[in-house]
Amino acid sequence: MTFLTLLPLAVVMVAGTQLVAAVFFASSDRPRAASLGYLAGAAIVVCGGTTVAWLAVRLFKISFGGGDRAAVERWIDWFVLALLAVLAVVVFLRRHTGPPAWMGRLQHAGPGYALKVGLLLFLAMPANDLTMITVGASAARHGLPWWHLLPFVLLTVGLLAIPLLALLLLGRRAAVVLPRVRDWADSHSWLVSEAVIAFFVLITILDLAR
Fold first, then answer.
1. I need a labelling partner for 89 at 20 to 30 A (CA). Which of 14, 31, 139, 168 fits?
2. From the centroid of its chain, how far is CA 181?
3. What is the DSSP string of 179-190?
4. Is 15 left (phi over 0), alpha (psi -120 to 50) or beta?
5. Cα(166)–Cα(112) distance, integer angstroms
6. Residue 161 structural domain
7. Reduced to 3 states, what is the DSSP secondary structure of residue 68?
8. What is the spatial distance between Cα 163 and Cα 81, in angstroms, rounded to a whole number?
């Protein structure tokens, strides 16, 4: 496994409510400031969450891997597989929840409030927590150094920045494009998430079969 294998899970991180919130911020009274605040909050949580998971699994390998490293890695693979199964169920159950009512307030958000939303939204979503643990645990299980988590963090933030980039590049036309992005993310992104999860399940099963 390389850090490239982890990158598709960034789609799961932003699918649904997270991307919808990014669209709201890009359409707000202060789109640039609010969007940057939101991206900063998301980056802090994703970087911190994956790092904690990476450190925990790395310490687990060091503490219990002296006798039989293969057995420890097999236990980690089973742990990751269980996380992916739960994640698939969570994504499926939340597929039609729609954006929460409080998102209407994001239209008037400043950068400070947007930062708090980014922090809380990525911390409070079970799918995000499970994905961050999966990424960090998988990277540590395969002996990847910590910095291999950074491309995942950057891609997650980059996907969240799509509405802001659309605003900067398209100008007034963004008023037409952004609602379409929001509606698609709310209705269909769960299918992409499930496909990515299935892909990672396959990779984990192949690791167990070796």
1. 139
2. 18
3. HHHHHHHHHHHH
4. beta
5. 22
6. 3-209
7. coil
8. 33
Kindly report, residue by residue over 9-44, the tens digit of the pLDDT: 998 888 878 888 888 888 888 888 999 999 999 999
What's the per-residue H, E or C state across 113-176? Answer: HHHHHHHHHHHHCHHHHHHHHHHHHHHHHCCCCHHHHHHHHHHHHHHHCHHHHHHHHHHHHHHH
Contact 23, 35 (CB under 8 A): no
Residue 150 CB partners (closer than 8 Å, separation 6+): 47
Residue range 76-111, pLDDT digits in tens: 888 888 988 998 888 887 776 665 666 667 777 888
Number of domains in the chain: 1
